[in-house]
């Protein structure tokens, strides 16, 4: 196996071939960041039939060349820049830096230090992440247009417009205005333009939701079986999580989402505070699911919330407990989906201890004891997840 390390830059890439057995440099090539040069680099690398690519910062500057190599069936691992910097610091030359040394260091790290992570071709989760980001931008644009419309209608109408303003309501209100003078005529024209913009954003948001629903349905995810998780929320959970098996336990996923409380020092008793860390978009999605289940009396989440209130917890504390348990359930469901896909189509992501762990579990029960609720993963198979 020959390791080929790549040090990517915006305009050029440097590749160095390193034998992991002897740590010997077998050659290097420097190319421009173009498709023709990518092909020249691959032709150069074909002199070693058994090869693997180690790309520094494969999810950053090296993203494009990584995707290009994966599309051609090449094996690629991602090496963090901090790992190559550590290798340079510990090697001869007092940490000197140039492209060839960086590329070779990336290959050495991948082979000897175990810091490299396999990279898989982009799939539906990547597409969902793109759609989720697009939806956030569309929603922000719509909110900005509606706010501007409120300002104009406040000057044209006594009392202004209602808060829950839609394009239809705004048009009806605008039709009742008879503008007088150049200022009112300008406001009336601008308001008409903004109403058209709001309609455009509404149409794009609907199309975005349809695209999300199609991808979620195609992924055969069981997240939508959980009350409170629709196609849009499932798309955010799947897109922002990526491969769920990269989290070894449900607790690790909860920490990533910011739903795991942080223990603080106290002389009297164990105390915890709310975590402000983690992915706030995932945290917001779980909060939406929790609030929805609290308002649905037939769900286990509602029963669990009421049980926590009966224990003497405040409404906010009970919500946080429910979010924590929902994070466990979401992680187990996603891991179970990943295992099921691997059984039918083969490995589609990084495999590890989490793949063989307990991937399914019920949503929160009404039992007041936390010990009866889903906890960290155990190394035993379980049936598919049950609906909440």
TL;DR of this structure?
It is built from 12 helices and 8 strands. With 388 residues, it is of the alpha/beta class.
Summarize the helices and strands and which ones pair or pack:
Layout: E1 2-8, E2 12-19, E3 24-32, H1 35-45, E4 51-56, H2 63-71, E5 76-79, H3 81-90, H4 99-113, E6 117-118, H5 124-156, H6 167-175, H7 181-219, H8 231-241, H9 250-257, E7 262-264, E8 271-273, H10 280-294, H11 300-310, H12 315-345
Parallel strand pairs: 1-4, 4-5
Antiparallel strand pairs: 1-2, 2-3, 5-6, 7-8
How would you describe what is shown here?
The chain is an alpha/beta fold and 388 residues long. The protein has 3 domains: 117 residues, 2-Layer Sandwich (Nucleotidyltransferase, domain 5); 96 residues; 148 residues, no CATH class. Helices cover 52% and strands 11% of the residues. The protein has 12 helices and 8 strands. α3 packs across α4 and α5 runs antiparallel to α7. It is globular, with a radius of gyration of 27 Å. The C terminus is likely disordered. This is IS110 family transposase.
> Could you name the ranges where pLDDT drops below 50 across 5 or more consecutive residues?
348-388
Helix- and strand-based class? alpha/beta
Could you give the order of the helices and strands?
Answer: EEEHEHEHHEHHHHHEEHHH
Number of strands: 8
Helix share, percent: 40-55%
Task: Give the neighbour order of strands across the main sheet.
Answer: 3-2-1-4-5-6
- From the alpha carbons, calculate the radius of gyration and give it in angstroms: 27 Å
Number of helices: 12
Average residue pLDDT: 82
Mass-distribution shape: globular
Domains (count): 3
First-residue to last-residue Cα separation: 48 Å
Largest sheet: 6 strands, mixed
Approximately what portion of the residues adopt beta-strand conformation? 5-15%
InterPro entries: Transp_IS110-like_N, Transpos_IS110, Transposase_20
Organism: Streptomyces canarius
Protein name: IS110 family transposase
């Amino acid at each position: 196996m020959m390791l080929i390390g790549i040090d990517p830059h915006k305009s050029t890439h440097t590749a160095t071939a390193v034998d992991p057995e002897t740590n010997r440099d077998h050659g290097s090539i420097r190319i421009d960041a173009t498709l023709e040069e990518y092909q020249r680099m691959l032709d150069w690398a074909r002199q070693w039939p058994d090869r693997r690519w180690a790309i520094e910062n494969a999810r950053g500057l090296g993203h494009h060349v990584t995707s290009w190599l994966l599309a051609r069936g090449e094996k690629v691992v991602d090496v963090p820049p901090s790992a190559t910097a550590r290798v340079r610091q510990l090697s001869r030359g007092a940490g000197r830096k140039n492209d060839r040394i960086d590329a070779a260091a990336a290959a050495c790290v991948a082979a000897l230090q175990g810091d490299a992570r396999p990279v898989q071709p982009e799939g539906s989760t990547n597409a969902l992440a793109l759609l989720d980001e697009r939806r956030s931008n569309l929603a922000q644009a719509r909110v900005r247009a509606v706010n501007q419309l409120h300002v104009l209608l406040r000057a044209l109408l006594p009392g202004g417009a209602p808060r829950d303003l839609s394009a239809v309501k705004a048009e009806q209100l605008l039709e009742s205005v008879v503008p007088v003078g150049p200022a009112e005529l300008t406001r009336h024209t601008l308001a008409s333009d903004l109403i058209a913009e709001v309609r455009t954003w509404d149409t794009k948001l609907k199309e975005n939701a349809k695209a999300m629903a199609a991808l979620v349905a195609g992924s055969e995810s069981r997240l939508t079986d959980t009350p409170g998780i629709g196609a849009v929320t499932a798309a955010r959970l799947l897109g922002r999580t990526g491969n769920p098996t990269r989290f070894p336990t449900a607790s690790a996923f909860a920490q990533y989402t910011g739903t795991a409380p942080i223990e603080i020092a106290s002389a009297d008793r164990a105390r915890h505070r709310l975590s402000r860390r983690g992915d706030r978009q995932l945290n917001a999605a779980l909060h939406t699911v929790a609030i929805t289940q609290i308002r649905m009396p037939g769900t286990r989440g509602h029963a669990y919330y009421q049980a926590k209130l009966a224990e003497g917890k405040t409404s906010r504390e009970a919500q946080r407990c429910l979010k924590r348990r929902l994070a466990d359930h979401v992680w187990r469901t996603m891991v179970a989906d990943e295992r099921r896909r691997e059984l039918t189509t083969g490995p589609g992501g990084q495999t590890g201890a989490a793949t063989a762990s307990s991937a399914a579990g019920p949503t929160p029960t009404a039992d007041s004891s936390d010990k009866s609720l889903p906890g960290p993963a155990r190394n035993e198979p379980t049936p598919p997840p049950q609906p909440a």
